Amino acid sequence: MNGLARSLNLPLAQPADVSLMPSPLRGEQLAANAFGPMKTRLEAGENVVIFIDGDSTAHSEYGVYYKFALAVGDLYNATVIMHRWAEWGGSSANGPKEYAAPVTLRSGTSQTIDVWLASLPGQVAGCMFEASRKPAAIDAIPKPDVAIIHHGHNMATFEMPGNDLSIGRGLFWSVIGLISWQWQGVPQVITTQNPWRDTTGYDKVYNSILGVASVFPSLTVVDSHKLFIDAGKDANLYRTGDAAPVVHPSDTQTNSTGAQKVADALMATFRRAKKAAFSTVSWMELPIGTNLFGNGDLSNWSAAVPVNFSNVAGHTVTKDTDPANIFPGTGAAYSARCKPADANGHFSKLQNSFDATERASMAGKSVTAIMLAKANPLQRTPVTSFVTRANNGLRTYTGGGLMWGATSGAGGWMPIVYGGIPCDAVNDDANSSYGFSPAFGGAAAPTADVNWLQRCVIIEGLVPRLGLVRP
Question: What domain of life (predicted)?
């Protein structure tokens, strides 16, 4: 595999179901995609449930998902009921963490389309799985017939070590995995949202999404971003009055042209769906195969720290046997309870300094790293760091806060993923390591409360595999 393909810094060959507007010369061509099961149920006169995980560009009453839901309702003369997340208070997230009272958008004479719009302006894809939201946002709603991910604008701050998009791809792998773990077999759709009007700052997010889709055909992509580019990013497609770089598509009562373009792209994908079975692979349940991370399941642990690990800067680690702190499906008897030092705990971490054998096992390969961690609302969100030679240099891949949507005060389980790191052919750098920092930050943490680490996996390949077994 050549270096360009291994790096995935540019979109690879488009997946078969990337959704562009159909050519009028060839007409609509039916294809298997994530809308197929929903279409089958609708055409049989059955009720359906749609779940959307979105940011501010999904939130407006004149926006994408109100329009899309109404278009599907019109097609089947169905009643459309909207349940929208109520946390956004108009200028900040100061509302209740629950869905608002349902609103009937359309009264029909056939079945019902229930739409659960989990949208929160200013937030990231994992935020609805954060512990303070998940019980109402995710656990309490019916299993959807399709789940749509509409995120990325607030995730563009991820780093690109050596101009590599592995961290960005990992952000999307994580939420895809969480949705599949929550609702087994649910088909998933992801949109590419829209480019920013004044800059190319969204491009790295766009290419991260396409990078995931190119190796994961059970994910259906609606490439709405391309439609804005093809239209020359016309000013009418964007909100007026927004500050540069102008992120939002036009989605107001006076102008909703931008939102309509995204809704039309979704609807075109729906119309082309074959009435056929379709499900998104639950990568968290894929067998690990060979784990290049020695003792990544923490099972070899008879001394003060698990074998291959060490405490750094006053960090301490103990086994936690409380079922609430053990991720289901791991088969583990405990997790690692990671405590920072009482003073200057932001330097503390649990670390595996890769030995020569581990470094050699990764050299010359495209590897994907997954660290399954739990955040404590009393502490900063945990940060993981994967240091290895890649992209012709020693690179540090870090992640954490962009999954929980906060740097502190957040809780719950998240897989922190770095997807498709192109390791250099030779790695003789003894600084290569993996670290788990329970209280990392620019200054000392206000508390010495713990966070948890459950499993570390590094595999060769571009699709993550975590080896969970569904209870």
Answer: Bacteria
